[in-house]
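How a chain folds remains the central question behind the approach discussed here. For one protein, we set the task of working out the structure tokens from the amino acid sequence alone. The sequence in question and its structure tokens are set out directly beneath this paragraph.

_____
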Amino acid sequence: MSEQLILLKEIQDIDSRRDGLLLRKKSLPHVKKMNDLKREFTKLKRVYYLKRAQLEDETNKQTKLEGKLEILTEKIDKEDKKLYGGSIKNPKELLDIQNEIKSLKEKKDDFELDLLEIMEKIDGLKSDLENLVGSLKKIKKENGIEMSEYNQIVSEIDEELKMKSKRWNELTSILDKSLFSMYELLRKKNSLAVVGLKDGVCQGCHVKLPAKELDKGLNSDKLWRCSNCERILVTIDDK
């Protein structure tokens, strides 16, 4: 194998390794996991804000109803004083007051039931919000772990890519320009431009080459390309 072909084979090995590293970087499971966590976080946050708005609405209802109950209680107390104060003697007026007190108390009972229902809703919403906050914190923690692991792996990949690129630049600077141009053209068609030849079989397209072609290629120092896929061939020694 000529010196130039040895250089080209190493360049191909580096490119293949870089392709693999870039693919690995894109397909790290951490990326999917972080995207899933992000979607879940966004979904739960939306629910959280909805529940918080509902809690605010129910709290306002509670405040208004408590205000109405306070006014109603004052009215009942006022009517009770009229009824039992002794200043009113007329039986009809006393009966009217009694009926008014009864009506007010019934209304108060309804208000208290409504208030109890609202307070139960508020308790439920507060519990839901507490659970949602816990879930959001858990997701943030999980995402932090995934991000840390992802950054560590990406850092290692980037460091290797940097080293490979440095060596690639060294090799391409001394490689024959026309040979490199051919290599680049082949790389555009297929990531593998330089492949091995083993037992007469091209390791790129896996086609066994004709005996005549093999004999000619093995006994020549010229650049050898597969007649089927046109990739540059290098012989693989079986040891």
Q: What stands out?
A: The chain has a mean pLDDT of 93. Residues 180-235 form one domain.
